[in-house]
Write a structure and sequence with these properties.
alpha+beta; Arc Repressor Mutant, subunit A; 2 domains; 4-stranded antiparallel sheet; 9 strands
Length: 309
């Protein structure tokens, strides 16, 4: 493992002028704990060489550190100065080695979702695990036994300033990237907890799950590896009526890096770029007959409202 961190010269302030692309990249990297260079390049719509130059500039300014943590492209994470520049109070630290594969998978899911036209047109935004857990540092409190999803997608209420009205406007979706198998019992329990939740993360314990209140998560999207999908499917089947609020899809190719699953993840994407502009290429298993929703011809989510957990 090699790590590089280059701080600014003593007494020399980091440049206050950051391009919009830099700001987006720094905030994204902070939210995801860390990102690999090739995924940062996708975010920035840049080549690997251009992304490497961006990271080198961040390092010179003292905003980021980078290192080769195992195989594949280098990882990038923010320093204390970088987090301060982003206005975030997270703890500056390199990503845990045991979490690298999972972090890459979650980042791939977020990039795939954000690349869709429906996501952009609906004004959706991502709220990641780190931000959800960070509420504890702002007076909130996440219980030790509470499950925190890998992310949430929030869809603003439709209005004149948020683009076309979508059937799921105003909803919040829980996002889970599953690489390895849990037990069916454990997975079912997590699903039930997410579907029953009514309060935000960090809320008082009395508000976590209040009967009669609208659920926090209108639905949960599980994006799975071939190894994890059978368990997730069985767990969904154990939910009864709540199963209608669980969607299951395959991980996009960008999740795998240099170690694709069998069969090759290329089958999900064909010969297109890693993130097609309007389709997530979830395979040939849509939840319902295809409909022209925000997702093109292969919607990952069927707009249903009011399903009981």
């Amino acid at each position: 493992m090699t790590v590089s961190e280059r701080k600014g010269s003593p007494g020399q302030a980091a440049s206050p002028h950051l391009a919009e692309r830099d700001i987006r990249g720094l905030l994204f990297t902070a939210d995801m704990y860390a990102v690999q260079l090739d995924q940062l390049a996708v975010l920035l719509a840049a080549t690997d060489g251009q992304a490497r130059a961006v990271v080198a500039r961040w390092r010179r300014q003292g905003y980021a550190a980078s290192g080769r943590l195992g195989t594949g492209p280098p990882w990038i994470w923010l320093t204390r100065s970088g987090l301060a520049a982003a206005g975030l109070r997270y703890t500056a630290a390199p990503p845990a080695l045991a979490r690298l594969a999972h972090l890459r998978a979650v980042t791939a899911v977020r990039l795939a979702l954000e690349a869709t036209s429906g996501y952009r047109q609906g004004g959706a935004f991502w709220r990641g695990e780190r931000r959800l857990r960070g509420r504890a540092g702002a007076g909130g409190r996440v219980g030790l036994r509470e499950h925190v999803p890998d992310g949430e997608v929030h869809w603003p209420d439709g209005g004149p300033d948020t683009g076309p009205h979508l059937p799921w406007a105003g909803e919040c979706w829980a996002i889970e990237a599953e690489l390895t198998r849990k037990t069916v019992t454990r997975t079912t329990a997590i699903m039930r907890e997410m579907l029953a939740r009514t309060g935000d993360y960090g809320c008082p314990a009395a508000d976590v799950a209040v009967p009669g209140r609208p659920p926090r998560h209108a639905r949960a999207l599980y994006v799975c590896s071939p190894a994890a999908r059978p368990t997730v499917t069985r767990a969904r089947g154990a939910l009864g009526a709540g199963a209608a609020r669980i969607e299951i899809r395959d991980l996009p190719v960008l999740a795998w890096g240099d170690d694709p699953p069998i069969p090759p993840a290329k089958l999900a994407w064909g010969d297109d770029p890693p993130i097609p502009p309007a389709k997530l290429a979830w395979g040939d298993d849509p939840p319902t007959p295809p409909a022209k929703l925000a997702w093109g011809d292969d919607p990952p989510i069927t707009p249903r409202r009011g399903a009981a957990p």
